[in-house]
Amino acid sequence: MNSLFKLTLAGIKKQTMKTAVFLLIVNWSIFSCSKDDRLTEYNSSVVDYFKDVALGFEFGDVSEITRRWTSDMRIFVGGSPTPELLSELDIIINEINDLSTTGFTIEVVDDTLQSNYYIYFGSGSSYAEIFPSQSNLVAANFGLFSIFWNGENELFRGYMYVDIFRADSTEQKHLLREELTQSLGLAKDSPLFSESIFQQAFSTKVTEYAQIDKDLIRLLYHPEMRIGLNESQADKVLRNILLEEQ
Length: 246
Description:
Blueprint: H1 2-10, H2 15-37, H3 41-53, E1 68-69, E2 73-79, H4 83-99, E3 106-108, E4 117-122, H5 124-130, E5 143-149, E6 154-163, H6 169-182, H7 211-220, H8 231-245
Parallel strand pairs: 1-6, 2-3, 2-4, 4-6
Antiparallel strand pairs: 5-6
Helix pairs in contact: 3-8, 4-6
């Protein structure tokens, strides 16, 4: 780039040399634009949204990198779930399993000793009795999740709750979907899309995934995605995946 500017500033008197420099500049311009402009506008927004949601957590001083489950999530359900909530849980699990292509799956188990994830349907105070570390959070939150990872940044254990007393039935479905989905490693909220399950503004009426939510789950659990990627590294992988799909 610098050499082209030097040639131009120096002044080239021969017409053939001027033509050559012009062609070089045009070719460089085409090349410089091709890297980012090849993605569709929607796919570009998917990349940005992924980086908003999938790197780090809302709270706590932890590195902002990709994390996900490598072992299957085996859920034990506790508390007092309604048949409607259990049916909704099955729907969510099936949707997530369909979006994952890494071999990761979620299932509900009947034995707590076989589980690595716990969902509690009940009051915040009862949940805090089981998990005392949540005591200072349940009063202000109708739903919460906690997840844990190992030294390789692989998620391997977690728990969550939905308050079935303070939240109505629609809100309960929203909270179940949001907390469970964020437990996959998509742990941040974002203000960008109002129809998204990750919407930052207070809303409990979204009970289905927006298309962009599905894409975030699909991309985090894509074989080409890696654990431990920072923003620039994740950006590169995401663009490569999406360009291959266009």
